[in-house]
Design brief:
With 80 residues, the protein is an alpha+beta fold. The protein is 28% helix and 32% strand. It has helices at 27-35, 62-74; strands at 4-10, 16-21, 41-47, 52-57. The longest helix has 13 residues, at 62-74.
Length: 80
């Protein structure tokens, strides 16, 4: 999936926030992936015109989430 991490913020409460640009036609698909990570994170669409998602990740899952982002970037879910 052609996602792009726009910005990463380390928060005072030890969570990390990520701004991730997702192709417009894959926003719902990416949202489904994030929703399946129950307890890891929460997300919202912060810029609908640019298809940017704001994802807040719990401190216990930061390493796993970053590994997942790397794997998502490397795999084409649409064309296999």
């Amino acid at each position: 999936m052609k996602i792009k991490q726009v910005k990463k913020v380390v928060n005072q409460d030890q969570t990390n926030s990520y701004y991730i640009q997702v192709p417009r036609n894959e926003v719902i698909f990416m949202g489904s992936i994030l929703e399946s990570l129950e307890g890891w994170c929460n997300y919202t669409t912060c810029d609908k015109t640019e298809s940017v998602l704001f994802v807040d990740v719990a401190k216990d899952y930061i390493e796993q989430f970053e590994n997942l982002l790397t794997n998502i970037e490397q795999f084409d879910f649409i064309n296999g």
